[in-house]
Amino acid sequence: MASYANNYVFLLLCLGLSFCTIAFGGNFNTDFNYLFGDFRANIQTGGNVASLQMDKYSGSGFGSKNAYLFGRFDMQIKLVPGNSAGIVTAYYLSSEGDHHDEIDIEFLGNVTGQPYILQTNIYANGVGGREMQYYLWFDPTQNFHTYSIDWNPQRIMILVDNQPIRVSRNKQGSGVPFPTNQPMRLYTTLWNGEAWATQGGTMKVDWSKGPFTAWFSNFNANACVPSQSNNCVGFNGGTNRGLSIDSRKKLNQIYSKWLVYDYCHDVRRYANGLPNECRRKSPRRMALED
Ligand SMILES: *[C@@H]1O[C@H](CO)[C@@H](O)[C@H](O)[C@H]1NC(C)=O
């Protein structure tokens, strides 16, 4: 596999250069498999850091070796700088099959100087359509920031630098589908979304600026693996407790300041009625209650 070969080359280089240090965290080597993109998917620095590239022939990606049922997944990501129009960097959990579950964090690139959109979505039993989109309060191409998915039987939380930006509670009791029984693998991919991603699909990838590279580091999973445990349903390893008053306040600020799209407010799209979980409370109210 290309990633392993490259890692080997890197090791040899490091042995030859005495100032080169290698961090042995090994997370990408031990926890992920190469998915697609050949040499474009690279594991570096002993497994702590990985990069994905996209050029006009292909994007690239990794997928976790384990399938998880509940857990908290942290990844530091540094996005494609400059003109990243049409490029989607994705960090997501997904099960397999026709009625799959999925929890998405996707970064929709933009032309130079214009803001990325962080899009989140949740699929349960094959049904998605629960997008929430945000601008970020920092430039995500300058430094690594930590993006987390925290999934337990009670709720799904998406976090940026440890601050919750989305809390979706399990309301299966009120007929709202929620992922609770299909193990999911974790994926990081870089792919061409120029048909829709940037300014409604009007801004295309500028291949003359490629190849495009996004960076991933310090992966951490505190998660349940069904093949190794018979009690994932009792999983309590994430931040299961409610939100602190402070992060509740911040979550409300984020909803009012940085949220740019909320499916629960899209009455044109859901002309025949908003999804069940939207009807009673706005996300603002939900955040206050959680
Ligand atoms: C790109 O920039 C435009 C103009 O500022 C903005 O409307 C849009 O939301 C940004 N993000 C994407 C992904 O199109």
Main attributes of the structure:
Jelly Rolls, 7-stranded antiparallel β-sheet, disordered N terminus, binds 2-acetamido-2-deoxy-beta-D-glucopyranose, Beta-glucanase-like, EC 2.4.1.207, disulfide bond, GH16_AS, glycoprotein
What can you see in these coordinates?
The chain has helices at 2-16, 27-31, 245-257, 276-279, 283-289; strands at 32-36, 41-44, 49-54, 60-64, 71-78, 87-94, 102-108, 117-123, 132-134, 145-151, 155-160, 163-169, 185-192, 212-223, 259-262. Residues 1-26 have low confidence and may be disordered. Helices cover 15% and strands 33% of the residues. The protein contains five helices and 15 strands. With 290 residues, it is of the alpha+beta class. It has one domain: Jelly Rolls. A hairpin with an 8-residue loop joins strand 7 and strand 8 (117-123). The longest helix has 15 residues, at 2-16. 2-acetamido-2-deoxy-beta-D-glucopyranose (NAG) is lined by residues 108, 110, 114-115, 117, 197-199. 2-acetamido-2-deoxy-beta-D-glucopyranose binds next to loops. This is Xyloglucan endotransglucosylase/hydrolase. Residues 1-25 form the signal peptide. One of its GO terms (biological process) is cell wall organization. Its main location: secreted.
